[in-house]
# Entry
Amino acid sequence: MKKAFALLAAALAALTAPLSRAEQPYPAKPVHFVVGAAPGGIVDVIARLLAPKLSASWGQPVIVENRAGATGLMATKAVLRSAPDGYTVLVHATAVAVMPSLNADAGYRLEDLVPVIDAASSPDTILAYPGLGATTLKQAIDKARSGKLTYSSPGAGTPPSLSADYLFKVLAKVNVTHVPYQGVAGAVGAGMSGEVQFVTLTAASARPQVKSGKLRPLVVMSSRRIALMPDVPTVAETGLPAFEDQTWVGFFLPAGSPREAVARLNADIGRLLDTPDVRERLAALGFDPVGGSPEQFEAFLKQESAKWARIVKETGAKAY
# Structure
């Protein structure tokens, strides 16, 4: 009888014992966000905006780690080297869809990543140094026919740099020399001082300089005008063929990661993107929340990859 009671007690204890880490619902341990950008940039800001909110919801730390360098390539490779268990998340921008076409040594394909969610986006824009004396894109293009003008960007191989190259070289058929900088601050500073005549970056990043009159917006690369710059035309409105480009921030896992992790990250990040404080914070940054399912993000990435592969080919862009 004592033996029977002992066996029954052991069985009950097994049933009521805490689940092992492997059996606990995701996430059962700290989650690492590996950010493909330096601290202070929009990718970093969005990661740090969401991390503490997810941590509070999950009861697990969410650790943000910056791996800047090579336009986010270092971060991408670090995540792809990690175990595909859902605990190492890549937070990256549009460049993740560009790099495989731009850099033969990128070392990855988009298929190596699982798209989780497209968090937010802002269209790119081209601005002019006020001293150039151009108030429209057409006037700027006419001045660029001299072949002596330059433009700055936040970095070689970034979508703003490639889209500017495409607009000038392919659509307008003028030669404007690219001067890449390491980040937005250097590119903006060069434009305000007149060191370069044009600057290309997200509309959100350009807002303070536009508001102060230190840079003059010529065009936004979106399908319609935007609230941040309601008086600035789209590419199609300038008379050039329609062209769109946006900087977006997405979350990814390595291929082979558990579906449970993908679904939980997508659902919880998507829920946060719908909360008033997150929407207000993104609006203050000049970004719109996107959201949607992993499948929708995957379809969008395929379109982006094809678009950038074509642009890289037509402009002859190379990784620096």
